[in-house]
Amino acid sequence: MRLDVFTLVPAAFDWARERRPLAAVLGGELELRIFNYRDSTPLTAGQVDDDPYGGGPGMVLRVDVVAAALEAVYGGVPEHRVIALSPQGRQLDQELVEELSLESALTVLSARFEGFDQRILDHLCTDVVSIGPYVLSGGEIPALALVDAVARRLPGALSEGSGEVESFSAALDGGLEYPHYTRPAEFRGWTVPEILLSGDHARIDAWRRENVKALS
Ligand code: SAH
To answer: CATH says 2-152 is which class?
Structure first.
């Protein structure tokens, strides 16, 4: 998959490249490109945003700036899905993550300050996605959340099998994963369910199935 992120803070993505899941899939299943709107802005002095029409606080990311950024990279609006990140969008859930992870190319647009000029959402994007019903200061954390969640679905991103049975996965009927324990078997009198120490894999499997929590 080729995943392109447009941002005003390219450095926000640096650390993630060195960690799983990105480190495991970059150069293979995933090509991640980070673009700065300022590098292709048609305005002077790297300007990318402007005062809102009608007045009010904050700055709004300009439609001509985003159009120029898409033009510079794709020669126009790309054929593949272009996702704008906004708290007002469709909420990202595991179903959408799995759907997106099957795409061969994705573009993710982030904004800062007051957000996007509405015409960007209306004319340059196919999807508007939120990572949750709260307002962050910029789209970098949402973009990292989306990129991480999508990357861990790609082949080779995780150690074998670990991405199959997870909270919200089809394997658990969308429920929450059973609890995990590791050594020590007892700490401050807090013990581990006896069954997990038994080595009896049929009983362990049954215990795990019983301890999947359905989402209401
Ligand atoms: N004025 C807007 C909020 C803008 S927040 C409003 O009230 O709806 C600035 C930018 O941060 C947004 O344009 C978006 O790119 C990003 N952002 C903030 N919260 C987000 C969220 N929950 N999900 C996705 N993107 C978000």
So the answer is: alpha beta
| Mutational test site, ligand 1, from 48, 60, 85, 93, max ligand atoms within 8 Å of CB | 85
- pLDDT band at residue 169, thresholds of 50, 70 and 90? confident
Residues of the chain with CATH 3.40.1280.10: 2-152
120-156 core/surface letters (b: 16 or more CB in 10 A; e: else): bbeebbebbbbbeeeebebbbebbbbbbbbbbbbbee
Please report which residue ranges of the chain form alpha helices under DSSP H.
Answer: 14-17, 22-25, 37-40, 63-74, 94-100, 118-123, 140-151, 201-210
- Rounded-to-10 torsion of CA 73, 77, 78, 81: 120
Q: Give yes or no for residue 85 CB within 6 A of ligand 1.
A: yes
pLDDT digits (tens, 9 = 90+) for 33-57: 999 999 999 999 999 999 999 999 9
